[in-house]
Amino acid sequence: MEEELRCFVCKEFYKEPVLLPCGHALCRVCAVGLQNHLPEVDNGSGTATDYQEADKASVSSETDSGVVCGSRPNSFAGTTATAVYSPAAFSLSCPQCNKQVFLDDNGAAGLPPFRVMRTIVERFGGIIGAPPAEEACQMCEGERRAAVVRCEQCSVRYCAGCRDAWHPTRGPLAQHELRALGTTCPDHGSPPVLYCNICIVPICQRCLAERHSSHETQPLSSAARAHKTELSQSLQQLSEQAKAMTEYIQLVKGSGDKINESCEELERQIDQACTEVTRAIDRRRDELVRAARNSRSQAIANMRSLKSHAAQKLREATALLHFSIEALKESDHAAFLQVGNILSARAQETAAGLCSSLDPPPSPPALTLDIEPVLRTVRTMNFVECIPPGAPEMAVEACAARGCSCTLAWRAPKAPAAVRGYVLELDDGLGGPFREVYCGRETVCTVDGLHYASLYSARVKAFNGAGEGPYSEVIGLQTSPVAWFAWDARCAGAEDALSLSADGLSARAAGWQPRVVLADQPLARGLHYWRLRIDTYDGDADPAFGVARADVARDKMLGSDALGWAMYIDGSRSWFVHGGAHGGRAAGGVSAGRTVGVLLDLTRGTLRFAVDDRAQGEIAFTGLRGAFYPAVSLNRGVAITLEPGLQPPPELLMANLAIE
After folding, report:
1. How distant, in Å, are the alpha carbons of 111, 268, 273, 283 from that of 280?
2. How many CA atoms lie within 13 A of 54 on its CB side?
3. Residue 147: its pLDDT value, please?
4. Mean predicted confidence (pLDDT) in 68-87
5. pLDDT tens digits, one per residue of 183-241
6. From the centroid of its chain, how far is CA 375?
7. Other CB atoms closer than 10 Å to residue 33's CB: what's the count?
């Protein structure tokens, strides 16, 4: 509490505290030192008006304490009555909130005393110096003390000691009225007895009659009690917040202890890890040294073997040499000729094989120690997380499904665990098992190639060096119930083949050879209906409409191979075609302006056709499973326009249900 009892300027306990309109306090001397004199101007000028308006604003501000400032006798905080404002002579800026206050000729000396602050400071023994003259005892000798009562008959103020000594409540003085001193009306000098709820100021009876007769008032004690109750409630909330702050400080202190313990444990782990690495290096060094020594021993052994072999060869050659020399000394020619040829052959043979049979001498090992991988590993040694991350939070507002793709976004889990990446998983749209569709550091992912009319479930988890965290909540994403597609631009060929319009919906062929065109995306799930409008038809064309696999033959009529399912139709009848076989002939043909509808029900595995949204024959094909591309085959004399994403005609749906 001591901070509240010290002046913001001099940092000492308040001496003669005064109250500013903003609710802050200053020592009277400090307030006088902070005020600035304003230049004198004409009362009728615009500058004086500005000062007056600013003065009025400072008195009536929402932070006003409600105390009437004696320095402005004509100004009342919050009053709605018309008042005459004197020109401002001084200005003062509150050092705590920087709010500018304009004062009259009395300046800061005329600010009202802050009695509550003075009382609290006195209670805690912080007041130094004599009270103001208007509040001092008139009977004290020497240093004057603050007066506590005033005799209405004697018109004298007494402190507690002088009251007991000079004005006892007995004898002739017993009939005198001793009134306790406190806040008085700055205009009339009488004690306030009421509180104006409109102007938010204490008032006396004369103030009530002069300015506040039409205002809502209440007894001063009731108003003080209500304000004290309100302050008590505010203090209760402040106390709860202070308690929470105390708990937070204790938590922070506890976190500091945990951090110290964790860092000490981490240092021990580093020492242990480095010791283990050093031991491993020592063990590897011993192994390499042993290997080097073994290599040296082996090389020395080989060297000795070669030396011994060469020495033996040399001894044999030397012996032959000496023997031959002695033979040359033989004087008996017949005896010499008996062995001369033999010795000559042996000498030649020995000379030819003496050096050629020798192995090259051993060379020192051309090896060095490769420590770069170890150094690279040491340089890349770093900390890894010991706590897996928490669960990411799905950003539902940013997730969306459009057509056969969906975009998912999520938020990183809360600290403290770090995140190295995320794993996004989707199911198959039928409630099956989840499968991974993305792994990386981004928090947004778009998944394409999904099935139409499917409800996919998605979830995401984070991971770091310590492992994987828990999954996020599962969210559902519904793909489009109908398929929107166009003709695949890759099917367009040369001038005598297919040509497509810019929007990819219209197609025509230039030659008599049938050409197959496929849609740009397959259908593998759901119920789909699309129409093909006959733009031109000359009666000699052979169009076929249906579905096909991706690798269907492109230069034959649709349905000629086992990868196409189609209905061939001319001007008067139609057939169902698959694998080159025809069947299901039905009456009714097409002409320019009519439409051919295709109903692919992949839930039941059926394919059905319609002309002008009326069924053309029975169900054409059943047992269809997998992915199918909408397809047509065209030749010269016919042009069509695709109309995808339509609702099936009720007649076709009812027929399907009836057959089922």
Report:
1. 82, 18, 10, 5
2. 19
3. 81
4. 40
5. 777 677 677 888 888 888 888 888 888 888 888 988 988 888 888 888 888 888 888 88
6. 37
7. 13
Question: What is the distance between the alpha carbons of residues 602 and 625, in angstroms, rounded to a whole number?
Answer: 7
Cα 118 to Cα 120: distance, rounded to the nearest angstrom: 6
Lowest mean pLDDT among 157-161, 426-430, 646-650: 157-161
* 608: phi then psi, degrees, rounded to nearest 5: -140, 155
Could you tell me what percentage of the chain is helix, strand and coil, using 3-state DSSP and rounding each to the nearest 5? 30, 25, 40
Is the pLDDT reported for residue 82 higher than 60?
no
218: three-class secondary structure by DSSP? strand
How far, in Å, CA of 614 to CA of 586, rounded? 13
pLDDT at 257 over 70: yes
Q: Report the relative pairing of strands 149-151 and 194-196 from DSSP bridges.
A: unpaired
Are 584 and 595 spatial neighbours (Cβ–Cβ below 8 Å)? Answer: no
Q: Is the preceding omega at residue 131 within 30 degrees of 0, hence cis?
A: no
Integer Cα distance of 444 and 422 in angstroms: 10
Q: What is the rounded average pLDDT for all residues in the chain?
A: 83
Alpha-carbon gap, residue 363 to 584, rounded angstroms: 91
CA angle 104, 109, 114 (to 5 degrees): 110
Rounded distance between C-alpha atoms, residue 561 and residue 430, angstroms = 32
Question: Residue type for 20, please?
Answer: L
